[in-house]
Design goal:
Elements (H helix, E strand, L loop, with lengths): L2 H32 L3 H5 L6 H11 L3 H16 L9
């Protein structure tokens, strides 16, 4: 196999892998959005679909985690902004 043939083969392989990764990301996003805690995870600063799914995957459906996430969501909404003017 000549060098141009090898490069062509590698490029085709990379394009195929890229396509498969895109399909996996779409499926992961669809599955993650169906999870009951997806909305809570996505409300956390810095967590998007990919990172939120990873956090969920690494922690599992652990009940203490769910309670912690729910507490974080409700208490952060109740805290005053650090930039709020003093009364």
């Amino acid at each position: 196999m000549s060098l141009p043939d090898e490069v062509s083969y590698l490029v085709r392989s990379l394009l195929q892998i890229r396509s498969e990764v895109a399909q996996l990301e779409e499926q992961m996003a669809a599955d993650f959005k169906e999870h009951p805690d997806a909305e809570i995870l996505l409300s956390q600063p810095g967590l998007g679909i990919v990172l939120g799914a990873r956090v969920l995957g690494e922690s599992g459906d652990d009940d203490p985690l769910r309670q912690c996430l729910r507490r974080a969501r409700t208490t952060s909404a109740m805290r005053p902004s650090p930039n709020a003017p003093a009364n």
